[in-house]
Amino acid sequence: MSDSESQRKLIRPGSGDKTRDGSRAIRRKQTPPEQTNAEEFYYLKQMAARTPMVVMLNNDEELRGWIEWYDKSSIKLNRHREPNLLLPKRNIRYMYKDEDRRKRRDDSDR
Q: In this structure, what is the dihedral angle of CA atoms 88, 94, 98, 99, given to the nearest 10 degrees?
């Protein structure tokens, strides 16, 4: 054997790649994070701009106002000439920007 052949290193799997019984472990993709912060980003953006929002409740009631603050389980909706409301998120079916409703109505009138 020459000197260069004796200095070659064998490539072996890392010690973390084998299970206790010596068989190879199958690597799995990591699960995506539970929280992406997309909801937080959306609320903060709407709060900063005081965006007029439409909130549809589970009972088909429609509320209009802007989001003053939110937490894990509720949002506070401020309204013009009406009392402000603290809404549990579980009672909200969906919400959207009030301007989106106006745009859809304008488009359907054409």
A: 150
| Architecture of the structural domain at 37-110 | Roll (2.30)
- Least confident piece of the model among 13-17, 46-50, 80-84, 98-102: 13-17
- Angle, vertex CA 37, rays to CA 29 and CA 68, nearest 5: 165
pLDDT tens for 10-61 read 776 665 555 666 666 677 888 777 778 888 999 999 999 999 999 999 999 9
Q: Which residues, other chains included, contact 73 with Cβ-Cβ below 8 Å and sequence gap of 6+?
A: 88, 89, 90
Q: How many CB atoms lie within 10 A of CB 65?
A: 21
